[in-house]
Amino acid sequence: MKAGLANTYDLKVPRYTSYPTAPHFDEAVDGARYGAWLGGIDPGTPLSLYFHIPFCAEMCWFCGCHTKIVKRYDPVAAYVETLLAEIDLVAAALPGRFAARHLHWGGGSPSMLTGADWRSIMDKLAARFDIAPGARVAVEIDPRTATEDYVKTLAGAGVNRASIGVQDFDADVQAAINRVQPFAVTERVVGWLRAHGIANLNMDLMYGLPHQTVPGVRRMADQAASLEPDRLALFGYAHVPWMKAHQKMIPEDALPDTPQRLSQFEAAAARLGDLGYVAIGLDHFALAGDDLAIALKEGRLRRNFQGYTTDTAPVLLGFGASAIGALPQGYVQNTAPLKDYRRGVERGEFPVARGIALTPEDRLRGEIIDRLMCGLAADLGAIGRRHGADPGHFAAELDALTPLADDGIVTVDGERVTVTAAGRPFTRLVAATFDAYLRKGTARHSKVV
Known about the structure:
Elements: H1 3-8, H2 31-39, E1 47-53, E2 55-56, E3 68-69, H3 74-93, E4 99-107, H4 115-128, E5 130-141, H5 148-156, E6 161-167, H6 171-176, H7 183-195, E7 200-207, H8 214-226, E8 231-236, H9 258-274, E9 277-280, E10 284-287, H10 291-298, E11 302-304, E12 307-309, E13 315-319, E14 324-327, E15 330-334, H11 338-346, E16 352-357, H12 360-375, E17 377-379, H13 380-386, H14 395-400, H15 402-406, E18 410-413, E19 416-419, H16 427-432
Parallel strand pairs: 1-4, 1-13, 2-3, 4-5, 5-6, 6-7, 7-8
Antiparallel strand pairs: 8-10, 9-10, 11-12, 14-15, 15-16, 17-19, 18-19
Helix pairs in contact: 3-4, 3-11, 8-9
């Protein structure tokens, strides 16, 4: 796509792992309301569980996650005890014993946990929930800190999918983002995972990092594919130093401009396609036989706070500082400061800082945004009828899409909106057309491309 078009749409919009998005949560949803929501869930509802481990051994300067650097293990051990207590607190508020079919650990780095921590957490979960047969148990791994014994512990705990942080294999890029991780280190951890039966592998790559080039991201794609992960994510680096002060360490003059970022994405995506990976939504890729590619083909692909997923559970419970949960009634987010999180749980209170209750209009717009982000198409008329919307409900949005249609980013056929192949990097911009909250707030987001 022409560089001029990339510059024209050099805008900042949400990543849409939820709708409404987290910047629009507020304190009207508190711990008491969360408790009431938990008590109102149908006992037959399947659950997904997310656990946030907000610790790392050192700070990667590109990082946008909520994490804390620790050199001693005591804070991690204390946090695990609080996490176990929060699990008890939430389980006690549910109207029965529920089945969990997706479990995900993120961070920070779950690699900071010891084997004893893993056993404690899994024992607690087994006591409080029914872990469904064949449940997806996924863990994010930092290859720099993982050991073979740690991998053995994960396998013994039932982990069957690992998400491996890479970003780029180039030494100059790694030095510029303070994440030195030679290819051999990643290759070794991949070998351990497969040797101990964790065969389902995700790999996270990035474009838009300092010193990256088009030839470089092609090499990055080749090296990543040589390790044969089932899935790859190709994220655009979000440079938000006003939100994450450590990103000020990244030399801004080494960052690619918007047309260069777009060229990097297109080059890496094309190379992954040549290597047999199917494009999934905005920025994911999977082998044709992977569950994610099958879900895309069958129209079952979904998006949540962990990205693209096959998980269709209507309830996602988030545990840990800053963790976000999704319930039929709305979204909740735990407090981020560790001391506040600990004190809340110690008082026997849900450590919720904010959230949002979903309105009928939110559900309508959320389904449209989900379909655009997952399937790159949305039938506004059909979705509107399911939600009881009047004909012509989205007339203003269809008018707003006219410039994008003129530029070849979308096609509009009646009320059916489809993102074109060339427009795929701009999918978030198309979705943002239906985001009513962007007109109300001033939250700053990452670039479209």
